[in-house]
Amino acid sequence: MGSFHLFTIDIVKSRVGRVRCRRFTALLACGDSDRKDTESCRMAVSPSTARGYSPAGKDNGVVKSKGTARLPILDGEALPLGVRKPEWLKVRSPGGPNYQRLKKLMRGQRLHSVCEEAGCPNIGECWEAGTATFLILGDVCTRACKYCAIAHGMPTALDWDEPRRVADAVAELELEHVVITSVNRDELADGGSAIFAETIRQCRERRPSMTIEVLIPDFKGDEPALRAVVDARPDILNHNLETVERLHPWARPGGRYWRSISLLGAAKPMDPTMLTKSGVILGLGETQEEIRQAMTDLRKASVDILTLGQYLRPSEHHAPVARWVTPAEFREWKRVGEVELGFEHVESGPLVRSSYHAEKQARTVRPGGPGEITDILESDVRAPAEQDLAAGAPNLVQIAASRRAAG
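RE: above sequence
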């Protein structure tokens, strides 16, 4: 078997011991059921129009509705759901030989990827190139971010055999670079950091020369959880800010703006040789000034790599798109980030996502030293949607025991 440069997968076991994957029903433009080009991929989900977004077919948790979202847009109105997308957001439908080979491999090994779970628009390009992203800790997230296609609800128990199976896949595919991400697991005391660390260690043992990137949750600002991941020595530590400070409480009510930024700042002194990375999606209603300020704030934490991409609406229940950001504007933000603000690298474009061209970044970008922010902020401040549970139990973000739908 030839080497792949990047491949990442999620392994989920059902209640009866079987491993299942979702299958495509069609590849459709996000929010437009009449078109076959794939700015985004709509999967085999069954969102309830009455209760909001709640996809079916999940194996490791009880799915709850995310409700609906109406973000505050300062200038103008949101774009209608079925509006035709600009030419620069069109991508080819997947189906090349490598794509089919990867799909067959994943189905044969009963695996699936976050590329499918989150409806990534680059699935055709990346799979044809032999690239994808591992989703660990299951396929049901305790948070209900208003831009995200991953299912929200209460996950089931941890699968402690998962790190071994991920490492086996890495070794079989002879990878040179791997990206590992996860859902949020706020019901766990460590947020799932032990599984992250063990997955890194086992992958490193099986492929010592391979570079490893992790895209982590905020662990509710828990420093020991962050340190557990950093001590496992990933090459790149990524945590996405996602949006600007004003929109953060609405778009990402399970997190906090400065907690996310400072998590990356606190990681720098723990391992100065490790690259740090974050991402922001544009088109949620942010202003030019707010974009620049978010980039400036990330540099206060000495973030090395920034990704900027266009927000694409997964369903009618998600936050609306405020505007289409042009390729020229994305190029200008790359210049601002690298020349004016000092990021080591900015990956900026309409279809850019967190792990886009990640293997190149791991080989060519060099880490900077610690920045102005080196301590985790707001770890003791509740997120807007955090709920009280029974005494002695960890507070859960966006899941309350007394109601079915949160957020």
